[in-house]
Specification:
This protein is α+β, with helices and mostly antiparallel strands. It is built from six helices and five strands.
Length: 163
């Protein structure tokens, strides 16, 4: 950009900051959505721990280029960005659920950390179980061998008593 306006520089700085701070950013095409539907989308994303912003593609392109992110292919047509504040899975799930009710919302792809995601990978992110479920599975997996050992140690005196 040769001699950019200060407003545009501020927007590029904002996008750069949000992309670097967010654990994930998912890009969507919102063509065909009404203003009220976009407001509903923003509400559902806010409840899931995310934000939905619409920027000019060229300004996002400059910010992504500064950060070394591969978003060039995704920045075509009307593009909105869903930034995850904490839980990328929750934001992806909120986008998926909203997209089921409103097929005009199309998930294009995104970025998880600094790794680019295709549209299929972004959709798969929504299918990951919640954090609590994953922690419960981990705890169950760690506890199972100990429970088996306790059962074996208990079986020796029990079998002796039966005998």
């Amino acid at each position: 950009m040769d001699n950019p306006r200060p407003e545009k520089v501020a927007v590029v700085d904002e996008v750069r900051q949000r992309l670097s701070d967010a654990p994930a950013a998912l890009l969507t095409e919102y063509r065909g959505l009404k203003v009220g539907e976009i407001a509903d989308l923003r509400r559902s994303l806010r409840a899931a721990g995310g934000d939905y912003k619409i920027y000019k593609n060229t300004l996002v392109r400059f910010a992504a280029r500064d950060l070394g992110l591969e978003l060039e292919d995704l920045l075509t047509g009307p593009t909105g960005i869903a930034f995850a504040r904490e839980d990328a899975v929750g934001v992806a799930r909120a986008l998926r659920d909203f997209g089921r009710a409103n097929p005009a919302l199309v998930l294009k792809g995104g970025v998880l950390g600094s790794r680019p995601l295709s549209a299929d990978q972004a959709r798969a992110l929504a299918d990951v179980p919640p954090r609590e479920v994953l922690l419960a599975r981990l705890a169950g997996g760690l506890a199972a061998p100990l429970q088996q050992l306790a059962g074996l140690l208990q079986a020796l005196p029990r079998n002796l008593a039966y005998g």
